[in-house]
Each structure stands twice: as C-alpha cells, then as structure tokens.
Design goal:
6 strands; globular; 4% strand; two-stranded parallel sheet; 3 domains; 19 helices
C-alpha cells in the first residue's frame, strides 16, 4: 500500500504513494467523489427516515408536547422507506470502501471535514426519534421498572404492562416475556434515563440517545487524538467509525448501548502498549495493566459478551505474569461486585436466551432450524467453529505494532461475529474501533460488507411486522433469507481464505509514541 519511513523522533508513519499518472490520479478523484456521494446520500436518507414520526423505521410511541425530541408528523410510504434504507445501506458501505480505496491510493481527505460531518450527523440523530430498531423501547421499559422499584432481571415487560404502566404497554412484542439481560451499568444508565424522562417513553429514549451521542463523539475525538500525527490513518479511522453510515445507523440512530462498551474496551486496549528501550521491547507495567483490565470490565458491565475482549487482553499479556494478574485484578474489581449485586436473576435471564437465533445468520441456508430456537447440538458445533476460526486468526493476522492487544481482540471478535448464530449489526462495534488502530488491509472491506449484510437483514427495523403483501414482501424475504445470508457466508469464507493465503496486503503497523 505504501512505504514506511521513520521520522527523526523514531515512530513509523504512513505515507501513501502518490498517484503518478493522470489515469491513476483521475481514478483516485473518482473514488473520493464516490465516497462523498455514497456516505452523504446514505446519511441523508437515514436522517429523513428517522425524522418522520410515522415511518416504518421508527417504533410507534406517544409523543409528548414540546421538545425534544424533534419529529415531522407525517407518513412515509412504506415501500419507499424500505427501498430507500436498502439503498442507504449499500451506498453507505460502498462510500466507506471507496474512501478507504482512495486513501490507499494516496488521497488526502481532511480529517476536520470528516469530524465536522460526523458531529452534524450525530447531533441530528440525537434529537430525532429512534430508528432501525425497537431496542430503545426495551431500554426504556427496563429503566422504568428500576425507577418503580422492580427488578428488571426478574420482571418482564408484559408484567409491567399488566400494571397499566404507560411505558410497559410499548414494549416490543418479541421481548414482552423476557427480563433484561443487560449488565448492571446498562441498567443504571436506563434507570437514570427513566428517572429524567418520567412516564414518557419518548423522553426516556431521548436521554438514552443523547448519552449515546456524547459517548460516540468521545470515541471520534479519542481516535483523532491517538492518530493525529498520521493524516492517512486519521482519515481512515474516521471513515471506519465517525462517518460510517452503518455505524451511525446502528448506534446514533438506533441508540444502542453497545457504544458504551465499545468506548470502554477501545481505550482499555489502547493502554496496552509495547515499550521500546535500548533495543528491547517490554509490555505495560502492572498499574497500566490494572487500568486496562478495569476499562474492559466497564465494557463487560454493559454487556457480558465483552468478556471476549477480556480474553484478548489476557492473551496479549500472557508473557508477563505480573501484568496479567494486574489486568485480571482490574477486571475483577470492575465486574465482580456489580454482577454479584445483580445476582442469580441476571444469570437466569441470560440462560433463557440460549439458543435464540437472529435473522442475519448464514446457517439458515443449510437448515431452516437456524431460523428458530436451536437445540444444544448445533450450538456446540458452531461454538467449536468459532474457537477454530479464532485460533486461525490468532496465528495468521499480522501483529498490530505497538498495540499488542488489538490483534487478539480482532481475532476473537471476528471469529465470534462472523460465525455465531445470534448476531446484530451493532455488535460489530466490538471490532470497528479496533480496525481504526490496526493496519490497513483487505480485512477493512470484509468487515464493512459483513456489517452491511446484517444491516440489510434488519431494515427498516421500526417493528417486527411483516411488510405488505406483494413485491415488497417477496423482495424483503429474498434479502432476509437469501441475499444477506449469502453475503455473510461469503465474508466468512473470505476471512478463512485470507488466513490461509496471507494476502492481507497490510500497511505498516502503528508505532508509538504519537502526538496526543
């Protein structure tokens, strides 16, 4: 991709090759324009779909008098909304990939322009209704339970509805008989939002989305600060995270709490840096390792699945027993007391979801059982496949330079996200931020296609209702049950092929120190 040079200070920097011919330069300009048009048009469609109150992308809820949130009280045609959002997912993914290709060819995309665009989009989504998912209504329901003195790990939304509570009756039908499975910090955040929003679901959701927007912007700033000494890496990070329409749709528009876990794990893993002195390379000291473990523990306090990142942290520190023990201690301090306080009801709530499948899995191409609740047998087989792919990636993925925890976190995260039978597009935030700190490679494009496939399978997301009969339902089923699963299978095969061939075509690893 590019040559590696060393500055007088020592760290390696990325200098993409400049186009040398008119045709090459012209193609680079085309890619830049394609990125701008694809990302811009995708975000515009998503904002319009979010702004209209009676949009198939927006969960129905009573709207309070006054502001916020903002909304346009009109109807969007159902077919136009479906088609527009499908186009937005494809345009957004294509725009990001075009921008990455342009950077690889030497384009200079101003980071400040990308940051400004990201902040405008995040601010717009923060004050608009939730779109693309009904999860924020579940968050509001669990927060309402906690405010009223109920245990959200015991009480179900249907039971709250039985008390004639105005929030309980809005709970999505698919989750009405399931208690919360979110971590203790997630419940605390939901309770705080419910306390501020009172009996209005729209106001509770507004607070949830506002805090999500603040954390999302914090990650934008953090990535920019970490990579500011390298213009190419800086722009690439903002393409992957800050202005990526798929990420913005999942987190800023949808209001998913995964952004909190992604932020905590990113900064925790970024603390684990190799130190170079007199020709030797050493890992982080015990205090830094403890802080890294505690930060990853914060992520686990939002969703237990982020224990996968803790495994990656342990793998990165395995050669230093002192640092490893310090990281485990930090993780334990952050995780054990809150989960002990939540107690066995949370464990039972999680076990109740065992075997549940999501719409976007490729296993349904081979068996319709993977469209329903799975028996233990296939679950064991899939789990073994995840472990095998994680091992293959740990062996074949190039090192991440002076950030030794990034490579194992990507290896474990990709194996789980690409092969487990219950996945949702916003789960991909586990690896998107880490890609920004990793080498530029073909893996970037594979991950973007994977997230696009999952997004397509869940659009428009405002309810679980089937689209109207006719061509729209036929086309929707073709995406849900054929196109998206085929894409997901293709990217899983592509990851294995990259591992076996080693054809990552990577850029240079990131070296520290960088200018903060």
């Amino acid at each position: 991709m590019s040559s590696v040079t060393r500055t007088a200070a020592g760290p390696a920097s990325l200098r993409p090759q400049q186009p040398v011919a008119g045709a090459a330069s012209g193609l680079t300009r085309v890619l830049v324009w394609a990125a701008a048009i694809g990302i811009g048009s995708s975000l515009l469609i998503m904002i319009v779909a979010s702004a209209v109150r009676y949009s198939p992308a927006v969960p129905p809820m009573p709207w309070p008098a006054g502001l916020p949130p903002l909304e346009i009280s009109c109807h969007l045609p159902v077919a136009a909304t479906y088609a527009g959002l499908w186009a937005a997912a494809v345009l957004g993914a294509g725009g990001v990939m075009a921008g990455l290709a342009a950077l690889a060819r030497g384009a200079r995309i101003p980071a400040r322009m990308l940051i400004a665009a990201a902040f405008v989009a995040v601010a717009a989504f923060a004050v608009l209704p939730p779109a693309g998912s009904t999860d924020t209504l579940s968050y509001a329901t669990f927060g309402r339970m906690a405010v009223l003195g109920h245990n959200p790990y015991v009480m179900t939304p249907g039971q709250l509805d039985g008390t004639d509570d105005p929030i309980g009756r809005l709970a999505p039908q698919i989750w009405r008989n399931h208690p919360s499975l979110y971590g203790p910090l997630a419940t605390a955040e939901q309770r705080a939002a419910a306390g501020l929003g009172g009996p209005s679901a729209a106001r509770i959701v507004f607070w949830l989305k506002l805090w999500n927007a603040i954390v999302f912007a914090g990650v934008v700033i953090g990535l920019d600060r970490m990579l500011r000494s390298d213009p190419a890496r800086r722009a690439r990070a903002h393409l992957l995270w800050s202005v990526n329409p798929l990420v913005l749709w999942a987190l800023a528009a949808g209001g998913h709490l995964d952004v909190f876990a992604a932020a905590a794990s990113l900064f925790g893993l970024a603390l684990v840096r190799s130190r170079r002195h007199a020709g030797t390379v050493t890992g982080p000291g015990p205090l830094v390792a403890f802080a890294a473990g505690a930060a990853v523990g914060v992520a686990v306090n939002f969703m237990l699945t982020w224990l996968l990142v803790a495994l990656a942290l342990a793998w990165a520190l395995r050669r230093s027993p002192t640092s490893l023990l310090a990281a485990v201690a930090g993780l334990g301090v952050a995780v054990v007391p809150p989960y002990l306080a939540a107690g066995s009801p949370l464990a039972r709530a999680m076990l109740q979801r065992r075997g549940k499948v999501s719409a976007d899995n490729f296993y349904q191409l081979f068996s319709v059982a993977f469209r329903h609740h799975l028996p233990p047998g296939p679950e064991v087989v899939v789990g073994a496949a995840v472990v095998a792919l994680a091992a293959l990636l740990l062996w074949s993925l190039p090192a991440a330079g002076d950030l030794p925890a990034v490579q194992p976190a990507l290896a474990i995260g990709i194996a789980w996200l690409f092969l487990w039978y219950y996945q949702l597009p916003w789960y991909d935030t586990m690896i998107i931020t880490l890609l920004a700190l990793y080498r530029a490679s073909r893996l970037d494009y594979v991950v973007i296609v994977q997230m696009m496939a999952g997004t397509l399978a869940l659009l428009p997301g405002g309810s679980g209702a089937e689209p109207p009969l006719g061509w729209l339902r036929t086309f929707s089923h073709a995406i849900w049950f054929t196109a998206s699963p085929l894409l997901l299978l293709a990217v899983a095969v592509a990851v294995v092929a990259l591992c076996m061939s080693g054809a990552w075509t990577t850029g240079p690893p990131l070296r520290w120190p960088v200018r903060w």
